[in-house]
């Protein structure tokens, strides 16, 4: 089928834009400070993104209708009442001597998460809904019962070079310009034993790769998550909660270390992990570790301490040169079944992590034990 002249021209414009964006990305530093700059993130200006052929391991999990968000209602008391900080901010968090802003950031490896003092997930959830929609995203998963909120794929228009051609002629056909990338964000919200709420943001990404001898066609491929972009959105969430830009950046750069080392315990042919922390903190850390390994969390049940996860062939390709390859070689069978990662209290300040079967018994299969090894590497 013959392509129209306009269609071919639009594809070439998009290809040119993709090439320029790549040059700009490669020439930049992409440090945390770069991403915290106000002009680095702009999803509001994006039109509806074209349909993507997404690898199975990056597709949004199918959430049962029993987890659908209830319709919005205004309570008699209105929105959550904000507290005044010593600095004069009206903040969503409740200020304390340890947290004068009513919140702080903790880090676990290259992951950061926000701790909002004195607030429950129910009180924070509507604020997060507003945050993502105000920033130009459509919510694809909005499940307060599981504490998971996922955006649809969107384009960061700030990545498109604002060159002389686009400023002049290009404005007439701006839709033909593309950064060649799409981003999706997953927000995980967890309550803690002391009445606070933990919030983490996980980035998933796709990029358009030009194909064919004349480079007039393309396909979408997965690319690595960007921890600095995740931190930038955490900073934006803190601003939504009442902090200034400078205060949010301060908390990001002064993130507190989160968590103790993890030990491996051997029991016959099975191995488990012991985390020297209470359940609520260990539960969050395991969730963050699963995100770091590019596992897809299909569902989770905090009451039972279960993460329902799987991984797939495309993930193995993404990680073939990294940590994943040490545990899953090219000769290893590529499992596609779902695994149950169980997080359960073992003592007052000790939590056990194991891969279990459908009956709750330790899974001693080779693949399950490799998952335990992978989690151990990530948690340490």
TrEMBL record:
User: What Pfam families would the database entry show?
Assistant: Lipoprotein_18
What is the annotated signal peptide range for this record? Answer: 1-25
Its domain of life reads Bacteria
User: What InterPro entries does UniProt report for this protein, alphabetically?
Assistant: BamC_C, NlpB/DapX
For the keyword Lipoprotein, the answer is yes
**The keyword Signal is assigned to this record:** yes
User: Which controlled-vocabulary keywords does the entry list?
Assistant: Lipoprotein, Signal
Q: Which residues form a coiled coil?
A: none
- What protein name applies here? Lipoprotein
């Amino acid at each position: 089928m013959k392509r129209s002249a306009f269609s071919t021209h639009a594809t070439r414009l998009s290809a040119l834009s993709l090439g320029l964006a790549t040059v700009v990305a490669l020439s930049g530093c992409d440090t945390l400070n770069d991403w915290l700059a106000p002009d680095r993130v702009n999803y509001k200006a994006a039109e509806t993104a074209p349909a993507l052929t997404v690898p199975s391991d990056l597709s949004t999990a199918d959430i049962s209708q029993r987890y659908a968000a209830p319709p919005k209602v205004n309570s008699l008391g209105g929105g959550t009442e904000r507290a005044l900080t010593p600095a004069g901010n009206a903040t969503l968090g409740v200020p304390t001597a340890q947290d004068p802003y009513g919140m702080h950031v903790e880090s676990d490896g290259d992951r950061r998460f926000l701790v909002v003092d004195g607030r429950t997930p129910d009180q924070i959830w509507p604020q997060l809904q507003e945050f993502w929609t105000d920033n130009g995203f459509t919510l694809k998963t909005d499940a307060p019962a599981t504490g998971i909120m996922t955006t649809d794929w969107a384009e960061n228009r700030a990545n498109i070079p604002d060159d002389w051609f686009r400023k002049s002629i290009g404005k007439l056909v701006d839709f033909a310009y593309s950064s060649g990338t799409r981003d999706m964000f997953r927000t995980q919200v967890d309550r803690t034993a002391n009445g606070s709420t933990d919030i983490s943001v996980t980035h998933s990404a796709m990029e358009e790769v030009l194909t064919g001898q004349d480079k007039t066609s393309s396909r979408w491929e997965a690319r690595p998550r960007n921890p600095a972009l995740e931190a930038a959105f955490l900073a934006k969430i803190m601003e939504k909660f009442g902090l200034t830009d400078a205060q949010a950046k301060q908390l990001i750069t002064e993130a507190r270390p989160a968590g103790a080392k993890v030990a491996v315990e051997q029991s016959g042919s099975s191995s488990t992990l012991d985390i020297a922390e209470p359940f609520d903190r260990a539960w969050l850390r395991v969730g963050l570790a699963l995100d770091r390994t590019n596992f897809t969390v299909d569902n989770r049940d905090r009451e039972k301490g279960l993460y329902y996860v799987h991984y797939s062939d495309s993930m193995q390709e993404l990680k073939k040169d990294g940590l994943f390859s040490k545990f899953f070689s090219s000769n290893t069978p590529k499992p596609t079944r779902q695994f149950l990662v169980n997080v359960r209290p073992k003592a007052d300040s000790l939590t056990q992590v194991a891969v279990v079967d459908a009956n709750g018994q330790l899974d001693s299969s080779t693949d399950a034990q490799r998952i335990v090894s992978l989690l151990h590497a990530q948690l340490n």
